[in-house]
Specification:
This protein is α+β, with helices and mostly antiparallel strands. It contains 4 helices and 4 strands.
Length: about 150
């Protein structure tokens, strides 16, 4: 019975890992050198940012089930094969900041356009609830409206 449960869990992790992440790894919360160059900053791609947020929330959910805590960094999610790589501004046009609680029982994700000139772009917030919230032109918070 335990073997069957373990095989099911590994199958689910494999399915999740096969569709998660982007292709360009970067260090957590470190602005990439390409993001500092105006020519290299991609325009904000809201669907890509929302997709990345969903994948991070799903990866964190699986990580919590396996470890009884949330991952403290994107690296932990990548090492657990729950994400392919950390989301990057080169892929989405957004900066992703993961803020786990000190006890790793909760986390917050703040997502803002990488280009500060993109004032009309939406900002996003997510946490362990799985809800993605958005605000236009300002930082999203836990009180922001839920987005689709």
């Amino acid at each position: 019975m335990k073997t069957a449960i373990a095989l099911i869990a590994l199958s689910i992790v494999g399915i999740v890992a096969s569709g998660c992440g982007t292709d360009t790894p970067t260090a957590q919360n470190k602005a990439s050198s390409s993001a500092s160059s105006p020519a290299a900053v991609r325009a904000p791609d809201e669907p890509a940012a929302i997709d990345a947020l969903r994948k991070i929330n799903e990866a964190q959910s699986f990580y919590f089930k396996m470890n009884r805590r949330y991952a403290l960094s994107y690296d932990e999610l990548v090492e657990a094969h729950l994400l392919k790589t950390e989301p990057s501004s080169a892929q989405t046009g957004y900066e992703f900041k993961l803020r786990p609680a000190p006890d790793a029982q909760t986390y917050k994700l703040y997502v803002a356009p990488a280009d500060s000139a993109a004032g009309a772009s939406r900002h996003f917030f997510a946490d362990q609830s799985g809800s993605i919230r958005a605000e236009t032109g300002k930082d999203a918070t836990p009180e922001s409206p839920v987005t689709q």
